[in-house]
Amino acid sequence: RDWEEGPQSMSTGEGGSEITLDWGNTGLGGGALDATLCKGGSWQGMGESQQCVLPRLDLEIREEGQQCVLPRFDLEIGEGKDLQINEKHLLGFGSTGCVYMGQLTLGADGVVPVAVKVLSDASLNHRQLFSEARGADSMLAEFQREALILARSMHPNIVHCYGGSLRPCTSKPAFIVQELCEASLHALMYDPFLSPTVLGQLAGSSCADSSSRMSLRTGVGRLLPLRRALEVASDVASALVYLHPRVLHRDIKSANVLLSADGTAKLGDMGLSMVKPSGAAQHEVHESYEEGTIAYLAPECMCFSPSEQIILTEKVDVYSFGVLLNELVTGTRPFFGMTTPVLRVRVALGVARPELPAAAAASSLPEGLVPLIQACWAQEPENRPPATGVRAALQAMLAELKE
């Protein structure tokens, strides 16, 4: 749970054998993916095997010294047997695949609806439209990395991973099975066809009433009640506290914040995530293209030359979070209508940020909220607060609202 590298022991439960897995060689830190949990629950070299089944991770991980103990590995996912994918019900696109509705059989727990992210030709082609340098091999590596990060992330504010197949064969694509949430934050704010029942369930009646302010032409969406907006922001900040400093999400945005039936906000889509090598203060990325969503992208992520070196820290997520937090309290898409070339230059130079709440609206906000937003999107990474500080500030504001 603390993202330490090196061999970690895992127990299959009562009467089970102990398995040692070196996470340092799973592709999370740049190495090769060389181990899979295959049928029968045994770890072995990937070799030519076509499928790996991730362990069931819906039980709390217990820490015992340096061991990461999983109570049981009792879930094998096989498409057509344990898992049914409804390819006619497309839920959306992630950074590494298409997401479909599915049904998963969990033995005594019955059948549960799930979201299934599939690495398909369509998703590969979609990504290659934006970068011809990205081929099927690198997309598969990203997909595998996302699955492994999700599998290790046991937190109420991170989308739960049931398992999946990470090694595509001739007739079967790679896929990840995740919990099915009610809606994304993006849909809650901007989808004009979202059910009023779902709106009321996730955000309250006042949010449903604000649908009249929506405008596709100006990027104005529904405005969440202040307390609800801060609750969502606090949940996302909690997810970042859990991930940082070892894991960088790199694509914090409203579309990647999912809301469960009880209203809990969960961070999803780890397709662009990176794990920092042990002891490293930052990532040095030597690439000629940018990763992430441009409206939420930190200035240091902007790339203007093929030879330019991009240095990443967890503060890139804090910047994106600041943009998201402002979006929550204004109910408006960030930088709506601004062209990408202009946006890249203006953000990189520090002369453009999303429009803050108007003075009249700001007067009704907690005193420290606007300064917190501005601190999160500070031009220099070292001037941005850590995720722990952001969460503490938001929780203090929520406590004041409840008094």
UniProtKB/TrEMBL annotation:
Signal peptide region: none
Record's protein name: Protein kinase domain-containing protein
KW Nucleotide-binding (keyword) present: yes
Domain Protein kinase: 85-398
Gene3D superfamilies assigned: Phosphorylase Kinase, domain 1, Transferase(Phosphotransferase) domain 1
SUPFAM superfamilies xrefs: Protein kinase-like (PK-like)
Highest taxon in the source lineage: Eukaryota
Alphabetical keyword list: ATP-binding, Kinase, Nucleotide-binding, Serine/threonine-protein kinase, Transferase
InterPro entries: Kinase-like_dom_sf, Prot_kinase_dom, Protein_kinase_ATP_BS, Ser-Thr/Tyr_kinase_cat_dom, Ser/Thr_kinase_AS, Ser/Thr_Kinases-Pseudokinases
SMART domains in the record: S_TKc (SM00220)
Molecular-function GO terms, alphabetical: ATP binding; protein serine/threonine kinase activity
Region Disordered, annotated ranges: 1-21
Family named by the database record: Belongs to the protein kinase superfamily.
UniProt binding sites for ATP: 117
Residue stretches in coiled coil: none
UniProt keyword ATP-binding, yes or no: yes
